């Protein structure tokens, strides 16, 4: 894996998930822009901005159990902290092991370096049908992610969700977070699906 870029005032944040019923794990990576150099303060600001609606399609058997924060300054060590209270809000039945809810991260600029996405893990079967999330589930997740974007700048320290371009070593503020109704998949998660 190539080394992480240096991007001033940007933190790489890995959100770590665990499904209690299967022991499977998953991670989502987001980026936060803040002038703070305190990893614990940034982690607290992120946690204070979460809303359970963000995880409305995630199986109720899954929970975010930790965050790893890495300041993209080229030298700081990563900071690991536990997380509590961030549980999947989806149905308690089976989940789709290779499917994910896709949250778009859109900025005011165009081009691949200025947009991103988050693949929420452990998509609960009851939240979708025939390859699509129900309209209600997509709307609820959108409300949660919009809340997150709006409340990060209200925290101390002041934080912003950004799309970080490792190619350009830049960070652009996220302005909208559309939740796609169609499933998505990540190659590494698709490996969980085994065909007979």
Q: Describe it for me?
A:
This protein is of the alpha+beta class and 196 residues long. It has one domain. It has 3 helices and 12 strands. An 8-stranded antiparallel sheet has the order 4-3-1-2-11-12-6-7, covered by helices on one side. Strands 5-8 form a two-stranded antiparallel sheet. The protein has a two-stranded antiparallel sheet with strand order 9-10. Strand 6 and strand 7 form a beta hairpin. The protein starts with 9 loop residues before the first strand and ends in a 6-residue tail after the last helix. The mean pLDDT is 92.
- Low-confidence spans: none
Strand order of the largest sheet: 4-3-1-2-11-12-6-7
> Which value, in Å, is the CA radius of gyration?
16 Å
Oligomer: single chain
- Would you tell me the overall average pLDDT? 92
Indicate the overall shape: globular
> SSE order in H/E notation?
EEHEEEEEEEEHEEH
Relative helix content: 10-25%
Number of domains: 1
**End-to-end CA span:** 32 Å
Note the beta-strand portion.
Answer: 25-35%
Largest sheet: 8 strands, antiparallel
Count of extended strands: 12
Q: By helix and strand content, what is the structural category? A: alpha+beta
Number of helices, where a helix is a run of at least 4 consecutive DSSP H or I residues: 3
